[in-house]
Amino acid sequence: MSELHPLLLRQLKRLGIGEAGTQPNAEQWRQFVERVSRAYTEADQERYLLERSQDISSREMQALYAQVEEAQRIAGLGNWSFDRRRRETRCSPETQRLLGRPPYAPPPSYHETLQLTHPRDRPLLRKSVHDAMRRGIAFDIEFRLLPPPAERTLWVRVRGEPLRDEGGRISRLHGTITDITQRKTIEVRQSMEYAVTRQLAEAGTPLAVFPQIMAIVGEILDASCGIAWLADHDDGTLRQSATWLSSPRACPAIPGHCPPHTAAAAPPLVLRALDEDRVLSGAGTGNALQAADSPDLDCRPDGGIVLPIRIGEKRYGALQFYSRRVRPRDVTLERSCHFVGRLIGMFLRRKEAEQALRESEAHFRSLVEQASDSLLVHDPSGRLIDVNRRGCESLGYTRDELLQMQITDIDEGFSPEEQQRLRERLEKGGSTARESRFRRKDGSVFPVELSIAPIEIRGQRHLLSLARDVTERQELQAHIRYLAYHDALTGLPNRTMFSAALSKALARARRHDRRLALMFLDLDRFKNINDTLGHDAGDSLLREMAQRLSHCLRAGDVIARIGTEDDLVARLGGDEFIVLVEDIDDVAQVDRIARKILATLVGECRIEGHPVHVTASIGISIFPDDGNDELTLMKHADIAMYRAKAHGKDNYQFYSAQMDVHSSALLTLEAALRQALARNELLLHYQPKVDLASGRIVGVEALIRWRHPELGLVPPAYFIPLAEETGLIVPMTVWVLESACAQQASWRDAGLPPLRVAVNLSPRQFNDHHLLDDIRAAAARSGTDLGLIDIEITESMVMQDAERASATLRTLKDAGMRIAIDDFGTGYSSLAHLKHFPIDVLKIDRAFVKDLPDSEAESAIARAIITMGRGLGLTIVAEGVETARQIDFLLAHGCDEAQGFYFGRPMEPSQLASLLATPSPAPE
Questions:
Q1: At CA 168, angle to CA 167 and CA 169, rounded to 5?
Q2: Which three-class secondary structure state does DSSP give residue 92?
């Protein structure tokens, strides 16, 4: 508010809305604009400026005008004035906009404004202006403005007040204009639905009510005329049953040869609307009516809108309306029209039923007898006088037996008090409903839902009870309630039920100043069980863990029981469980429960014949120490659980504020990583690969780095796992391919010899269907030969889905690239498995190189890998080479290439270019 003009602030304070810290709402803006507008029009503008020239500069006035115009735009309120003597009209920009005129255009005259007004509303505007200018009567009217073609009609509210000069003559008319389209549209549609409903309720025969209904709907649709098409009872053919004209001049062609009204068969648009059971318009079929001055276009057969009259598969007909102007599609109006069609359909269906009942009383009795619900009729004293066959079957009595009984003999809830209340309700009119229990002949009872209404039989008032056996429904409802609050797999309470229990527990804890604890539990390495033994085995394991948790927690440990007595723990989803502990005396009590849970879960269980040992990680938050509400406690328990996993799993951790700081840091790092590509913060370093026999650099490995503007060079170990988890690794890998190919082309253009570039693929990128397309696109843009690209993947990636991995590798191989297995020896595969894949290069993991040649175990492993790899025709590359003795060992046993700090650390492209320009001596 402080940035507003001082005069504007003073006006707002007069309305009581200028206090510090408050913002005007739309209604307050509207009041303010009306006050300012009135001030502007009540006095001459020059005098207004002169009176305020002492404290308002020209620049301030311009700023004030701009803010007033902006306030009018926000409030959707314009102002206008008309000087009768000068015949001059002034309009604010918002008024010009509402009238469909640009702000710089001259204001419309009174006659031009009349032409912009809907023809049916012009008499109202003309009379209001006449009364104001002749008799000094202020007006407040609502009317429609004609929109441009294919736009919705605009409803406005116009208020006007006449002003008199010193001689008492009316010299000026001023007022405001407001856009009320949204409110008026809703009112008009509601009015249409109400009016149609009332007409149908009061109608006697269908044909008599159609003209009135068509007049109501046609007025809303702004139609010129309409036709009612009704299906013939015999063959279902649609025939014209009624017509409607908005006025005698609306369609002058009707008396002679109006094509729509003289058509013998319904047009295709009507048939299509009935087939699809939806409202259709001619404008939506590609044959939209074009605006024209000729009245003959009012009834173009390819125009208008059609309301289907259909209930289910029953087609009763349609109402078709024609209009010269193309209406834009209005989904809400279409719904209202469709609702009107259904109302008419239900009316026609009801009339058909009434006619059928009048035609055959025997048929009615047959329907009653075949009804699936029990129908019982009794007199005011409660004596049964009629019952249908279903009633006899459900109660186990014969019809004669029931007709000798009272309603109280079978209805347990029909006590004298209930009978009196029922009589009072029925005397007020209409029917009533209640629930009760009926007693069978064998003494058993069952729940029923009763609809009771008064009926006249031979001039005497009786009661008709429609009784429905709701045993199955109540059982289903109970089952649905159980499913809504319990986990379908384990039968434990679910998140919804636990949340309700926690809310009540927190209220008790606050009321009695007690503490409680939340224990967030997640099974360790549960994904491995699913991936190895299958999801059915995983579900069996979850059920077993749920039973163990429920049995190991006694009522003394967990005070908050959820649902039944045995519901001591809830499942949130997946392999996550949560326990609520109330009335904590000290943290040692929670500590004891956590240890007990871990000890119970770790015991061996057999899943589908396989022995399985499961551990869990538990995070604990305490109320009120770690939070005062459900959301905070749940979040902090979750954070503590992840800290337990970070500490090696199979343990529990209490929440501390430092954990939250660590989580916030990870979120900050993730947000920065998402912007790293766009901000050009990523770069590539290259580590050389050396041919051990010649000492020549034969290739490089592209390694991504992140230069953070504040943190500096972020190690890959920090951001690569985060990129994998968030999915950012996919666009990052695409960027690496693009940059590596571009750099290779740069070295080539600098005259350096061809150099193989190895790019590491992430598991997500390896499984991407667009992998080959991305590589080809990157190579094509830089003119790089695909034969100079090495694709490095880990052995675990190819072993997860061997068949799919083999197909992907074959595709890359066929494109000309070499395939390398990185970090070999650290996964679960072997050379026996790898021989089935199209692999060219095998890289020995640095774990088997770092202690060469001193470690006998690592020496034996390295020799075995080299020997078996060469036997399969693979190029062997050793990683992590740092000493000359390691080189001697590898060279002596037939290793082909090596990379490591001995030859060079990962370096920037310019450093590598200098290194490539210097000949490398062959090892001795």
A1: 95
A2: coil
Tell which phi-psi region holds residue 525, choosing left (phi > 0), alpha (psi between -120 and 50) or beta. Answer: left
CA distance linking residue 224 with residue 324, whole number of Å: 7
Tens-digit pLDDT profile for residues 465-516: 888 888 888 888 888 888 888 888 888 888 888 888 899 999 999 999 999 9
Q: How far is CA 823 from the centre of its chain?
A: 44
Look at 423 and 838; give whichever has higher pLDDT. 838
For the whole prediction, is pTM greater than 0.90? no
685 band by pLDDT with thresholds 50, 70 and 90: very high
896 has pLDDT over 90: yes
Q: Tell me which residue of 276, 284, 323, 256 sits closest to 118, measured CA to CA.
A: 323
Peptide bond into 853 cis (omega under 30): yes
How many CA atoms within 13 Å lie on the side-chain side of 411?
A: 27
572: left (phi over 0), alpha (psi -120 to 50) or beta: alpha
Two structure tokens written together for 878: 């050793």
The count of other CB atoms within 10 Å of the CB of residue 569 is 25
DSSP 425-455: HHHTSS-EEEEEEEE-TTS-EEEEEEEEEEE
Q: Convert the pLDDT of each residue in 310-345 to its tens digit.
A: 888 888 889 988 876 666 777 777 888 888 888 888
What are 237-244's contacts with CB under 8 Å, separation 24+? 237/265, 238/265, 238/266, 238/270, 238/271, 238/274, 238/317, 238/318, 241/207, 241/210, 241/317, 242/207, 242/210, 242/211, 242/214, 244/211, 244/214, 244/215, 244/218
CA distance linking residue 504 with residue 623, whole number of Å: 13
Q: What's the CA dihedral at 729, 732, 736, 739 to 10 degrees?
A: 180
CA distance 404 to 441: 14
CB count, 10 Å around CB of 26? 10
Over the stretch 205-231, which tens digit does the pLDDT of each residue have?
A: 777 888 888 888 888 887 888 888 988
> Do 130 and 102 touch, CB atoms closer than 8 A?
no
